[in-house]
Amino acid sequence: MNKFNKLILSVGLILSFCAFGNTTDYIDIKALCEELKTSLSHIVHEENSTCLKTKKDTFKTNHTHSLIINRVNEDTEEIEKVQTDMSESDLVKLCEEFDSKKFKGGDLKVISIDMPSENKKGRWRISFTFGPFISFHNKLKMHIKNDDTDLTISELGPVQRTSHKYYEIFREGVGFLQFIDEPQNDITIEIVNDKMYFGVRYSHPKNLFQDIHDNPQINHHVGMVGTIGGHEVDEDDVNLRRYIHTISTSHGNTNINLIGGKIFNIAGNQDKNNLEFRLGGGAGVSFANGVSKYWALDENGNNNLKIKEHAGMRIYGFNITADSEVRYNFLRGKMSASLKARGVYTMIDGPIGDFHAKANLFSSQYGISVGYSPDILPSKSKREKKRIARIKKEDEDYRKEQELQLK
Fold first, then answer.
1. What is the pTM of this model?
2. How many CB atoms lie within 10 A of CB 276?
3. Inter-residue contact 356 to 348 (CB < 8 Å)
4. How far apart are CA 120 and CA 271, in angstroms?
5. 240: CB partners within 8 A, 6+ apart
6. Cβ distance 354 to 295 under 8 Å?
7. Residue 6 has pLDDT above 90, yes or no
């Protein structure tokens, strides 16, 4: 097992152990049900409506009640008081269950219940992910053109440059954060709820269409028709290295995509730890600091290597993707670990080094990622707390005004 695989395995084990940090919610259900029965619930979201009092009553609006729960961490046994919401119909069902258990088991005062977390259905939240991937490319036909070249290459076999060695961050000569740039990797920023996601993905594939230095084994049997560096070529089975040293979009290669898709829950509670499947797609632009090196005849008839590199980042094409992902959310949805697979079509029609290139590149990419979802967007309960506080203040101001008028 190489060092990269050991690193991935270690990260997976750490994430697996972290997933066991569960919590349990408790509430004084006896006191809450007594309040419900005597109409003493202190928070109602709509005024002047008929509220549910008992099992036999009907209601026009399914009110929401604000509850204080005791959240117990099963590992540290720490207790945190958290405010959340429960619909009146769900609360009535819970009280009926409590009454039934109380009659069966004696004077029951507290029961354990599964309360929803802040990541409730329909709530949007922000998610960040990062991780490496590997690429596989289909052979293609590419047309390249400039002042001394007008050539079509068939059966061209692109390869990836993975650079996974840069994950060995303590290796001599490797920068501490160089792994963010050197390997092929993704960074995504998404807005997510329990049904769908939308976002932006930065992807950094490293494509080598021809590369004698790092991959001398490729493109030994290609077809070439046209002119390359002043050489007339019409051959069906030729070693490309006789004419071209490098065609690469490895340096700075970037895909910026708008992405979106559907989320399907496979197992677990979406408010807590769960396994989900994602199906979606994306579209965007591809640009790179392309490199070209090829042999060209000069004015004296000498064959010299003509090089163009470090010419700056330039758009060379557009791409669309079909995405699939299996994601495990843990630590109440704060963290995630994913396995990803996607198909990518890139329409190449732009500058790569000294050439203007045209081609249709079909690729498949497979990767892993870790994610973090901070609590940035305000939840419904937090918005309701502010609304309720404002209403209470207005009521208090009104009462004070009335008291002053009576005096």
1. 0.64
2. 19
3. no
4. 6
5. 153, 156, 210, 219, 220, 222, 224
6. no
7. no
